[in-house]
Amino acid sequence: MRVSNQSTYDAIKYQLAKSVSDLVTANGVVSSGKRINKLSDDPVGLVQVLSLRQSLSNIDQLDRNVSTARTWLDGGETVLDSVKDLITDMKTLAVQMANGTVGPDERASAAIQVQGAIEQIESLANTQINGQYIFAGTKTDTKPFEITGSTVNYYGNDTPFSIKIGRTATVDVGQNGETVFGNDTTGIFRTLLNFRDALNSNDANGINNAMDTLDDDLNTMISAVSDIGSKGVRLDVKEKILGDLKLTYTERKSSLEDADILAAIADLQSKETAYQAALSSSAKVMNVSLLDYLK
């Protein structure tokens, strides 16, 4: 059967195009180091790779959340440790001022120290992390405490600010400041304000009451620090889980999409040889003369 020149040329064009396509694909594998660069390379594998990429992206986000949560908890623990130290100092001062040999002038002078402690604790209670108040509940954009004269004002709410650390898991990293520092009737602020006023009025009974109440306030701070510590342990566990998942997903994704570089280079060389051979043979076939057309 006689084959027309047109059919021959079409076959040659098809083979050359296929050789070029194979060469481009092989080069893409070597250049990217990836076995899957487009859907047609491995449709099923690509779907799995995309799913793993999404899972890894979610893990990265949770990692950032855990890091943020740790920053908040560390900040809160630092604040409460400082408040504990101030309470201890005030307890020591109260013991000294309760001595019957201490006169009104000395107690009035001590009241100035107490006022300084009140102001320090107020500043600590209004601590911010990245511009957000950590003792204002979920009202993180609102300054929680303001001490005016002998009045304690709390402007936060009673719902601790939380951060998502899992699909359905969250951890409270902020604090209900009213629970930790109290309000106008109870808590460390009220204790110190009453202590200050007792010193100024040379009220021995008021000073003794402050000593007892300061013990309760110190226990409140210790309990709050302990709670932060337990949450820190929870974050440690979560970080370990996320790290293990990230390693597993990364290895699985690599096994699906990464190419065997040595095999890929060998394949590229083979495709280059095939392409050169196709070019050479095509040139010979297509090198026809005018007499060939006239036959």
Query: How much β-strand is present in the residues?
Result: 5-15%
**How many DSSP-defined strands?**
6
Top CATH class of the largest domain: Mainly Alpha
Helix segment tally: 8
Straight-line N-to-C gap:
15 Å
- Spatial arrangement of strands, main beta sheet: 1-2
Question: How does the helix and strand content classify structurally?
Answer: mainly alpha
Helix content: over 70%
What's the shape? Answer: rod-shaped
Could you give the order of the helices and strands?
A: HHHEEEEEEHHHHH
What would you report as the Rg, rounded to the nearest angstrom? 38 Å
CATH superfamily of the largest domain: f41 fragment of flagellin, N-terminal domain
Provide mean pLDDT, rounded: 85
Q: What is the fold named in CATH at topology level of the largest domain? A: f41 fragment of flagellin, N-terminal domain
CATH architecture of the largest domain: Up-down Bundle
What is the total number of structural domains? 2
How is the biggest beta sheet arranged?
Answer: 2 strands, antiparallel
Q: Low-confidence stretches at least 5 residues in length (pLDDT < 50)?
A: none
